[in-house]
Model the fold of this input.
Amino acid sequence: MNDESERIEQGSHPEREEGNGARTAATALVAFGTLVLLFAAAVVVFLLIAELTRGQWMLAGSAVVVLAFLLCLLMRSALGSAAVAMVTTSSIVAPLCVQMGESGIVMGLAICAASMAFATPTDAAFWLVQKLNNLSFKDTWITHTFGNAIACVVMFAIVILLNMCRGFLPGL
Done:
């Protein structure tokens, strides 16, 4: 037998091995980009807290909403649990929300938007998507995270619009 037929019998295919370097580089780039975004979000959270404590933020209501969103985003990425991230962020931001006279509804919506940003294997929905669509772990992670990220950004934009309309919309 020649070498190529032995490799095919053992399950190694030459056409699949060609793209491994590109896949590894793409995976490393995605991981590095995620770390950079998380670091940038942490810096923005600390800058927002500094601006709020000095009282120099002109749109303080928007700052609190952004702070709640980013804090929950960081908690979700660090802890992996959406419920724990939402409860922890709510307990941290609630006193600030009351003190500044902000809407608890808008804060809650911002926190909920951030909690669905990442898809982790600790979520039951992650495994439902994988099993029902017959996807590999990697494909599920990429697909589910991308969809959740789009939903998170769209919901946060809606929350910011609601916060801007808070003065004339009843109940906010």
Summary: The chain has eight helices and no strands. The helical segments are 3-9, 14-17, 20-54, 60-79, 82-100, 104-115, 124-133, 137-164. The mean pLDDT is 77. Residues 119 and 143 are 9 Å apart (CA to CA).
